[in-house]
């Protein structure tokens, strides 16, 4: 979507309704008052200057940034992708930047926030150059990921249906060297890409497409003749495949669709080895709206698996969330000959909970294993209604916190926990990134997060501004924060990537 604001055209008025300036008066020179702002000043630039908490920015893109991905071994390397321009036929474009070039700001006294003079004297954000440009897409790049475990390959997916892969070599001497390995185009549009975390299957990714198909590729940089190898392809979804995620061990892949189905794919045969694969021979769990307990009118759009791989959460239209058990696979190599009774005891697919706290679509889900004794499992859900709801999975998914207006009246685009912590980071179409501390008890935040009541009720501890905001054209469409959450890097609908420091 174009990020430029169209010029405002003044409607014509009848002549007798206007006070016309006399010709002699019009000929007089009108001097600029030093205290007045020039009429042609760029309002967007002024707003960015006055409300920019970033320590660095990347503004080479000419239109919206739809995707962002962080290198797993070198977290300062961040890839962003979107469109090369605002035109409908503009090709896709992507870039890789090094955020380590952004200097940290010194710790400031508490009086800093209340001192406008001190705020005016803080160093401006640094401009980040592009290390490498991603090309070859004829439509917008809307999915990016680095392969696991070492980030050896950067994979892009586009609205043109292409998946392109670049080998990434990182060294102190040469810096970053990117080499195109190849591309595949089996679908009309790529919706998402997810890297497989299994150390036994390095450089493997899954992608979901608008036709409902799911594809798994292993990328072998050493095979020049066939670097992109199809491992599996699945065609059970009848609507667009909207989201997908691997279990933490990388043995199962969970995907959801606009048709309201959930499939947990047995990609490597681990479930089949335990005798718990479905009759279709492909899935360990298969649920559809035919089961009225699982039906979500309007489809499913988000999915997350808990760190212990005991359940999968799916979010959909109307604020609906379903919690479904996952099979316990155990050590398949040593338990292949277990009896069917034991296998049945570990079968997943049971609906553990149906949650419905929010009033509009659940677009993003995140799960953390917070460090307590015993450990606390929290599920966070971000909704189109602007709220964030946090459930306590260790207490039968009781609502721990419902932050109404977490991003004011704008959609929540993404939520993500700082690893194994109580800290939740969120972004929304209001153009703001916020961080919440979920420790302690809190009631429903009745006010917007920007207001005192909502912020205190919700546990708001930090917010970062700098994007244009105010809904369409200025929201934050994604972010990465590494494992520590010390730096947050964004992808903006306004075509800017910002680096914030916690």
TrEMBL record:
Keywords: Repeat, WD repeat
Coiled coil, from the record: none
Gene3D superfamilies named in the record: YVTN repeat-like/Quinoprotein amine dehydrogenase
WD repeats (start-end): 134-167, 234-267
InterPro entries linked to this entry: WD40/YVTN_repeat-like_dom_sf, WD40_repeat_CS, WD40_repeat_dom_sf, WD40_rpt, WD_repeat_multifunction
Protein name according to UniProt: Uncharacterized protein
Species of provenance: Beauveria asiatica
